[in-house]
Design goal:
2 domains; 0% strand
């Protein structure tokens, strides 16, 4: 949300002041929620299977993935289609400046399946869903490998270094193989260190010191990769977030207590709906204000950001309450529409 609401303006300001490195670092950092999303996917999705606490049934697995992702996505797609249609019917300077797509029923229908291999996406924030679904498809192959008793921590570390190298190499090939069909697969390789770190955390228990070491290495890697893009900055953020996830399992840590607070659990359980809807909310508010505002002045900026963020949260709360929670399991705050006032620790839903 911060990336789509503020980063472009701040990055442009920094670059205009001769600070391109600071602008690029800010841009990469605020968009790195994707890397965290991929790390968590590996942890949460594979942990029960990697530790043999739950038998893997492929049919049930794919049905659960479909139920979990698709219903809230369809609601968000309907909203995105409506705002795209309105912007096409009544264009403004915002729709031109933001290069908003023209509504087409065929284009809209092509997005019903979530996965995109190059066709138009009205909500450009959804590109990561294609990479996520590709990972889901690979899970039946990964689980037997991950659950094998001969797989040790040394093997996992070797695979991580291999993924770091592959991801960096793919970035150099991307311009040559950036066709519609190849691009999604290439992105899966670029972000493979994030998924692999999640798998390592799913398979093994790691002491907090390893997590903090990964955070330190990841931060150094990020600082270098912003200057030298061929290093794959996404892998650096994967290391940082993987390290933080490792440390968060220590129940006596401040990070565990913070993430286990009522407010953070409430927010985390609505994060998918918020991810799906926030870009649409921003576009809707920006377009509506541009109907009466002649330009992107300071008043336009503050009004659109304040109202846009408010609408994004309200819309995500409605999608979660009426749709998403009906298809999700192990929720702690399913019956709480409004965010909790108390900051006390919430129950840990992972073992439920």
């Amino acid at each position: 949300m911060a990336h789509h609401a503020f980063t472009s303006a701040i990055t442009g300001f920094l670059q205009s002041r001769g600070l391109p490195y600071a602008g690029n670092l800010l841009f990469a950092t605020t968009q790195s929620g994707v890397e965290l999303f991929f790390v968590l996917s590996g942890v949460v999705l594979l942990r029960p299977y990697a530790r043999r606490s739950r038998p893997f049934a492929p049919g049930q697995y794919f049905l659960r993935r479909l139920q979990r992702l698709w219903p809230p996505y369809l609601v968000a797609l309907a909203a995105e289609g409506a705002i795209t249609w309105a912007g096409t019917r009544w264009p403004t300077w915002f729709t031109r400046d933001a290069q908003r797509p023209q509504f087409s029923l065929l284009d809209w229908a092509s997005q019903l399946g979530i996965v995109s291999f190059g066709w138009r996406q009205y909500n450009t924030a959804w590109w990561s869903l294609t990479v996520e679904v590709l990972f889901y498809i690979l899970v039946p192959v990964l689980i037997p490998l991950l659950a094998a008793r001969r797989v040790g921590k040394l093997w996992a570390v070797v695979m991580l270094f291999a993924a770091l190298g592959i991801g960096a190499a793919v970035l150099r090939w991307d311009e040559r193989l950036n066709s519609a069909g190849w691009h999604a697969l290439l992105l899966l390789l670029v972000y493979s260190p994030c998924f692999l770190l999640g798998m390592m955390i799913a398979k093994f228990d790691w002491p907090p010191r390893v997590g903090w070491a990964l955070v330190g290495v990841g931060l150094a890697y990020i600082l270098a990769a912003v200057q030298f893009p061929m290093l794959n900055v996404h892998a650096g953020f994967g290391l940082v977030y993987g390290g933080l996830v490792m440390t968060s399992f220590a129940t006596d840590s401040g990070l565990y207590r913070f993430l286990s607070s009522d407010l953070m659990v409430w927010l985390g359980e609505r994060s998918y709906s918020l991810f799906l809807f926030h870009f649409t909310a921003f576009a809707a508010v920006n377009w509506a204000v541009s109907l009466i505002s002649p330009d992107k002045d300071l008043g336009y900026f503050f009004v659109t950001r304040f109202v846009g963020i408010s609408i994004a949260f309200l819309g995500a709360m409605l999608i979660f309450h009426f749709v998403e929670r009906r298809f999700a399991r192990n929720l702690v705050t399913a019956d709480q529409f409004w965010p909790p006032i108390s900051n006390g620790a919430a129950d840990d839903g992972m073992d439920r």
